[in-house]
Amino acid sequence: MGSGAPPESEPPAVAAARKLHHLLRSRDLRPALSYLRTLPSPFTLLPNHALNALLRALAAAGRVRAATSLFRSIPVPTPHSFNSLLAALLRRGRRRAASALLAVFLRSRDASPDVTTLNTLLHGFSTASPRPSAATLLKLFRFLPETYAFAADAITYNSLLSALCRAGDLATARKLFDGIRVSEEGSKSVAFPNVITYTTMIRAYCAKGLADEALALFKVMVANGVPPNRITYNTMVQGFCEAGRMELVKEVFEVDSFKPDTCTFNTLMAAHCSEGRIEDAMKVFDQMTELHVRRDSASYSMVIRALCENGEFGQAEELVDEILEKEVLKKRGGSVPLVAAYNPVFVYFCENGKAKKARMLFGQLLDRRSKVDFHAFKTLILGHCKEGNFEEAYELVLSMLKRDLVPDSECYIAVIDGFMQKGRMKSAWEALHRMLNSGLRPSTSTFHSVLLGLLKKDGCAKEAADLIEIMLERKIRQNVDLSTNLIDVLFKSDLNDRAYKITKRLYDNGYYIKMEKLITTLCDDKKFIDAAEFTLFSLQKHHELSVAVHSLVLDGLCMNGRASEAFQLFYELIENGSTSAVAAPRSLVLLHHALEEAGKMKEADFVGKQMRRATSRIRQRS
Length: 622
Known about the structure:
Blueprint: H1 12-23, H2 30-38, H3 42-45, H4 48-60, H5 64-73, H6 79-91, H7 95-107, H8 115-127, H9 134-148, H10 154-166, H11 170-179, E1 183-185, E2 188-190, H12 195-207, H13 211-223, H14 230-242, H15 246-253, H16 262-274, H17 278-290, H18 297-309, H19 313-326, H20 343-351, H21 355-367, H22 374-386, H23 390-402, H24 409-421, H25 425-437, H26 444-456, H27 461-473, H28 480-492, H29 496-508, H30 515-524, H31 528-540, H32 547-559, H33 563-576, H34 585-597, H35 601-621
Helix pairs in contact: 1-4, 4-5, 4-6, 5-6, 6-7, 6-8, 8-9, 8-10, 9-10, 10-11, 10-12, 11-12, 12-13, 12-14, 14-15, 14-16, 16-17, 16-18, 17-18, 18-19, 18-20, 20-21, 20-22, 21-22, 22-23, 22-24, 23-24, 24-25, 25-26, 26-27, 26-28, 27-28, 27-29, 28-29, 28-30, 30-31, 30-32, 31-32, 31-33, 32-33, ...
Pfam families: PPR, PPR_1, PPR_2
Protein name: Pentatricopeptide repeat-containing protein
InterPro entries: Mito_RNA_Proc_CCM1 (IPR051114), PPR_rpt (IPR002885), TPR-like_helical_dom_sf (IPR011990)
């Protein structure tokens, strides 16, 4: 037997636990859950430590429903497992479920919440919505340690302090802060307040605009030997800038231990830009290079936007060139840039024939998964159309749709018109189709323009037919010339069935086509059977045709060996027509002759009688 194999005499519970622990090493918990379902009475068979390990794994993976169900089934859930599930619920904002879980846990005879439980609750409740009151937080802070005999630690105090500040109760937070002292725990000393405590309180003062109180507390912090960290300094710089207390910002910069970073300079530049102090913002921007502080995307976007708003587009473009050259936006770290921050420079580029450069900048922003912006997309689409780059404009339209943004009518029409100018009718039709699918309704003239372009373009008959059917579905007014041309194009493209179908739909919807023109064209193309079908269709629709058209169709059928079809048409014309002649005399002579040659003597006699009647009527009139 190999050294890694379990002994043959290993009890089933130990073997099952070993297998479950092995499966839990994977990030995919499905095998572990599947294995659990194969066990007979798993909650009896498996030892407590194995079930608790599964519970913690489910909680860590965010499977809170499965974890909660397992928690209620485990005979003795450990505090560690409970805390893991509690934290998972609170991370997802499920405060009510977390409270219910806590109540169940505390009712258990073996309940033993610890300091981690308290810290988890304080942090989770303080970030939940709605936030609990200060009184509720303090009650929780006192109840658990007193009831279950454990001591609060540094994390507890800092969590409570942060929760009170978030709740907006600055007075109670300050009382707690002032009450923190050095406590002894055996031989181990835990010093309060620490850098987190001071920074939390300073942030609260800054949020309330109490800049002087924040600076005073900072001085106490330094005097008490608690070294501020980067977050402390940047919190004060931001708070003082937002309060308009730039003299206090200067005091912070004079502290020897302060080493400003990218966040610091960005905060300063934002303050200067918001007050219109562009020159001061640019000085700060230049100082970053002098002090070897890295400029990130936010550094550039702030000053570029400010320069554009101040009309200094040349300088803004120089910075964009620097961004593209150094690939600043491609560098990870720092905040994700906002596309909207670059909108002014996009407008400038697109209005001045530099849409390509705008697209390069925009592409790098999208690569950083920046929050997409409708106005930026629209500016670039219209800019590319203005420069005749309609393919790139359409790619931007598709990019918008992939990101669940809907281009407006102006974007679509600019692309559609551009494709039509270039003679790219299939692309124009595709763009129009996407416009319709976006829930937008173009003008009737746009429909007609695209349809006309498709009809003029070889190989676009199917697309033209699709378009006119959509127009009928959407109750778009038809143009009789375009409708007639479409049917003609469909026949020329050997799409006869489609031609008949669309003709019927047109008439069913109250429209019509120029039948005499169409039938004449069909005869010119030697499509006499189709010409006959449309003649009969006109008869059914009470659409009167001229004798010349009747004669043209009859002559064509006769001369092409279709005497039977010619006779059938003639008969229908006689039966449904008026008392006047339905065809020219020479056409009747031709029909009579064709029938005799085909051996259709009965039909020829019928035509002969009609000829004699026609002759008799002519004599009577004269």
